[in-house]
């Protein structure tokens, strides 16, 4: 088993461990009552922030998520005045961009919180214990965030549900992750490996999962793919299906489930169509996940399928799965 596979196989346990701290996280979050929130992160942390942003905006909160490196160089200091709370997401708490932000704009520290796997990081010490939310993901060995990505999402959902005054049942997510580890993906892997081209499509909460999947396939398997929102794919990019690519649509229960079902029926004549779904379907090429999660959680187990795909493609392509050849786990240079 690769070190990457070891990491992603521990995700159910990591989520279960995190949820033992759920009440503590919500109590700490309750001391803030933000209405205008800016999330900042890089890589997997940025995509976890995007996931939380979808949730926050559905509750009526004004929430925006940006890639930290772009903010440092292309925002003015006054831009931060539009937000009463900044949520900084970094599994290490030591990334170059994060440290630079806190040093460059000291006035934001009093309205910032840090979501991290490292409560002893230099940025955590600057902000203080009351403003640090630990994701309790345990040690992550490999390149390619797994436990830290999922636990960042869950921690952010706990924080934002508290701020929104909404109940969000996170129970059972660990079981659904276990199921995604066991579901048969052999034929899906064979199709992607044989084709060599992959397009990922989804809506709502699925979109940040697809963006993370793209990163995972790149850094673990050195495999390039593209992603589209469901609506964006229809606006022209669906022509790729006629070109013979493998298109994977994430279809889960939720507001746009019926729209996706009609779209899938329309595309079902193409041999390259694959689904990752917790919805009953007549499409034969489907990785079937368990039903039962709310829309806010339903796409999360899909990342496990993409992690397993990346691990298998890395092996077939002769790359060490989860071992960085150029990049590093903690980015110390911009």
Mind explaining what this structure looks like?
The chain starts with a helix and ends in a 17-residue tail after the last helix. The chain is globular, with a radius of gyration of 19 Å. The strands form two sheets. It has a five-stranded parallel β-sheet. It has a five-stranded parallel β-sheet with strand order 7-6-8-9-10, with helices on both faces. 49% of the residues are buried. The chain has helices spanning 3-9, 11-19, 22-29, 44-58, 68-74, 96-104, 122-127, 147-164, 173-182, 186-195, 206-221, 230-234, 257-267, 302-317; strands at residues 36-41, 62-67, 85-89, 112-116, 132-134, 198-202, 226-229, 246-251, 273-277, 286-288. It has two domains: 3-164, Rossmann fold; 173-317, Rossmann fold (3-Layer(aba) Sandwich). It has 334 residues and is of the alpha/beta class. Helix 3 packs across helix 8 (147-164) and helix 4 (44-58) runs parallel beside helix 8. Helices cover 44% and strands 14% of the residues. Strand 4 (112-116), helix 7 and strand 5 form a beta-alpha-beta unit. It contains 14 helices and ten strands.
Summarize the structure.
The chain is α/β, with parallel strands linked by helices and 334 residues long. The chain has 2 domains: 3-164, Rossmann fold (3-Layer(aba) Sandwich), CATH 3.40.50.10490; 173-317, Glucose-6-phosphate isomerase like protein, domain 1 (Rossmann fold).
CA radius of gyration: 19 Å
Content-based structural category = alpha/beta
Termini gap: 32 Å
CATH H level of the largest domain: which superfamily?
Answer: Glucose-6-phosphate isomerase like protein, domain 1
Strand content: 5-15%
Extended strand count? 10
User: How many structural domains can be distinguished in the coordinates?
Assistant: 2
Most strands sheet? 5 strands, parallel
Number of helices: 14
């Amino acid at each position: 088993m690769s070190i990457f596979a070891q990491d992603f196989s521990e995700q159910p346990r990591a989520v279960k461990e995190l949820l033992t701290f759920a009440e503590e996280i919500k109590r700490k979050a309750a001391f803030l009552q933000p209405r205008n929130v800016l999330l900042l992160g890089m890589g997997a942390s940025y995509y976890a922030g995007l996931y939380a942003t979808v949730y926050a905006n559905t509750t009526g909160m004004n929430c925006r998520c940006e890639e930290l490196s772009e903010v440092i160089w292309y925002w003015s200091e006054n831009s931060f005045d539009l937000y009463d709370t900044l949520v900084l997401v970094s599994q290490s708490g030591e990334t170059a961009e994060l440290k630079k932000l806190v040093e460059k704009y000291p006035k934001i520290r009093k309205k910032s919180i840090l979501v991290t796997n490292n409560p002893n990081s230099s940025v955590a010490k600057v902000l203080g214990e009351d403003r640090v939310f630990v994701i309790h993901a345990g040690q992550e060995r490999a390149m390619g965030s797994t436990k830290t990505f999922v636990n960042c999402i869950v921690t952010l959902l706990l924080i934002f549900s508290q701020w929104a005054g909404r109940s969000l049942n996170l129970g059972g997510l660990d079981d659904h992750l276990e199921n995604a580890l066991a579901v048969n993906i052999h034929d899906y892997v064979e199709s992607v490996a044989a084709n060599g081209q992959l397009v990922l499509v989804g809506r709502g909460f699925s979109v940040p999962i697809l963006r993370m999947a793209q990163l995972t396939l790149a850094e673990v398997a050195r495999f390039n793919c593209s992603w589209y929102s469901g609506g964006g794919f229809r606006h022209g990019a669906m022509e790729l299906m006629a070109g013979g690519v493998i298109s994977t649509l994430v279809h889960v229960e939720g507001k746009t489930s019926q729209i996706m079902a009609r779209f899938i029926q329309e595309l079902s004549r193409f041999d390259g169509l694959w689904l990752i779904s917790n919805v009953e379907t007549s499409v034969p090429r489907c990785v079937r996940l368990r039903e039962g999660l709310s829309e806010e959680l339903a796409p999360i187990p899909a990342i496990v399928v993409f992690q397993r795909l990346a691990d298998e493609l890395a092996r077939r392509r002769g790359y060490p799965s989860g071992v960085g050849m150029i990049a590093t786990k903690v980015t110390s240079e911009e």
